[in-house]
Amino acid sequence: MKFCKKYQEYMQGQDKELPGVGFKKLKKILKNCRRDAQSMKDVHGVLDNQTCPQHCSVCDGTFFPSLLKEMSDVVGCFNERAQKLLELHLASGFRKYFIWFKGKLQGSHVALIQEGKDLVNYALINAIAIRKILKKYDKVHLSKQGQAFRSQAQSMHIEILQSLWLCELMAFHINLRETKAKSGVTPALFEGCYLTFNDGKPFLSCELFDSVKLDIDLTCSICLDTVFDPVSLTCGHIFCYMCACSAASVTIVNGLKAAEPKEKCPLCREAGVYEGFVHLDELSILLKRSCHEYWEQRHQTERAERVRQAKEHWESECRAFIGV
Fold first, then answer.
1. What pTM, to 2 d.p., does this model score?
2. Helix or strand or coil: residue 183?
3. What dihedral do alpha carbons 259, 260, 266, 267 form, nearest 10°?
4. How far, in Å, CA of 101 to CA of 237, rounded?
5. Alpha-carbon gap, residue 154 to 160, rounded angstroms
6. Highest mean pLDDT: which of 20-34, 49-63, 83-97, 274-288?
7. Helices 109-141 and 145-155 sit at what angle, rounded to 10 degrees?
């Protein structure tokens, strides 16, 4: 079965109407573009093999804008659903029942696992669709603009395989697998997803499709140690919470939300990435289980630092209040 038909059947088989890639529509646009390009070749005798035809309507205003919007809708839907799923999994007591009631979600453990599987399948099949249509674009135009567009999408944070919620789902999968291992039931959201250590450095690794492998480095690039109390900035880079506060020039007391918009990510130097940070709670649970001794040592160290910063903060506030 051709991928286009397989993709359409998958999207039509979903219980809810979900955003997706207009694979058939985009292929039709490329087919028309190929016909136009061939006409130009017949008229002018030669076609530049390195770039698209002059004034190509596909490049100028049809193909890429359509795909950009569809990619944005897909990653937005995935992020929202993954966030709700993980929020429900980590909630407890009355808050869990409130989330179930508010979101009209099924609260059973089996339902959570199934929702996780559905989300992973949704992410992967759309990632494949995007790769295939961009490859088709480059083949039609004899260019590398499809690859360039993919790089642009990554810089705009609408590449679904770069989503921080995919990282959290991977950690969720491993946590579930380890929790259920004793009962003999091992739920699988991913195939071949593991926390690995290379020269003592942790990586979250997962084999996805077509030899595509996702490796997420879990070493904080500021303290050069395993991330503790990990957070992801909106640019997608992961740091220890305290290290991120230091990079953003804020105290633990004020928190990352107090960071100035001009503050930049220490790695990619993108500004305004702190306000929308996300605590990676599933990843934190995974690392705490896997690196227990390190986690306890780091917990004691950070606790002392938090107390010190809180003390300095309130002493400063008191001096300001009395005018000293």
1. 0.82
2. helix
3. 110
4. 34
5. 9
6. 274-288
7. 140
Residue whose pair of structure tokens reads 């992410």 in the numeric block: 123
Q: What does DSSP say about strands 201-209 and 230-232: parallel, antiparallel, or unpaired? A: unpaired
Q: Residue 191 gets which letter from DSSP?
A: S
Residue-averaged pLDDT of the chain: 81
User: Are 227 and 287 in contact, with CB atoms under 8 Å apart?
Assistant: yes
The predicted pLDDT at position 193 comes to 85
Q: Token digits for 196?
A: 């690995």
3-state secondary structure of 209: strand
Span 56-99, pLDDT tens digits: 655 557 788 888 999 999 999 999 999 988 888 777 655 555 55
Pull the structure tokens for residue 155: 């810089």
User: Any idea which residue has 């017949």 for tokens?
Assistant: 42
Q: Which two tokens stand for residue 1?
A: 């079965």
> Residue 69 and residue 66: Cα distance in Å, rounded?
5
Q: Does the structure show a pLDDT above 70 at 49?
A: no
Q: Which residues fall within 8 angstroms of residue 228, CB to CB, at 6 or more apart?
A: 220, 240, 241, 242, 287, 295, 298, 299, 302
